[in-house]
Amino acid sequence: MMNDQHYEITICSDSVGETAEAVVKATMRQFDAHQVITKRIGHIKHEDEIRLIMEAAAKRGGFVAYTLVQPELREMMKEEAIRLGVRAVDIMGPMMEAFIDTFNDSPKRKPGLQHEMDDDYFRRVEAIEFTVKCDDGRDTSSLLKADIVLIGVSRTSKTPLSIFLAHKGHKVTNLPLVPEVKPPKELFMLQENRVIGLTMDAEKLLKIRTERLKAVGLPNGAKYATLDRIVEELDYAHVLMKQIGCPIINVTDKAIEETAGIILGYMN
Fold first, then answer.
1. What is the pLDDT of residue 2?
2. Which Gene Ontology MF annotations are present (predicted)?
């Protein structure tokens, strides 16, 4: 996109719209999409709403992505897309049709089932509460209660990974590794596949820590952000991880989602 024009993707749903938005944003990350903005419209109930949304989208350009479980709303979206010449991407429809054709079943056609407060919902809430409480080694006794224990030196994405995994329903605790601090005895009582070691290339970690110092207003010369100290910490952490026998993941330039996928693969 070489001009200054901005483009818009309209995200429509008869529920919250998080599913469609997640797909759109995952797609946008594959492109240099600085000129593209998204607009999410949820809880669509009537065909008239779709008509107005599509007419507005036709004026602005771009395209529409939607998750609509009610067949009359999906049909209206298709008709308006043809009438106005607007590209409309049905994110959920093909999947539902494949399910119907393959398993000879009928959908409930009820919006928002993903957000119902069922057992899975409460399990995720419990996991998030546990993970927040146990962040950064605050409660070492929790190591024995966790589904996943992340270990690594400072700034290796332990906290954001923990929260991401907690939203998937896993109780996670993370422990920073520092050469001067003896690791808790509970760490050596865990099965190897419950512990995941995180590491990072020293130069990348140096850049991250230097930026962290700037963010908190500390001088650049602090030992925390020197290459010698980082190498020392990484070497110490590597020896400890080998002693435990846990998998080790190099998170350099990896997205949180990618690392989480690798971790869950180990868990399975």
1. 44
2. kinase activity
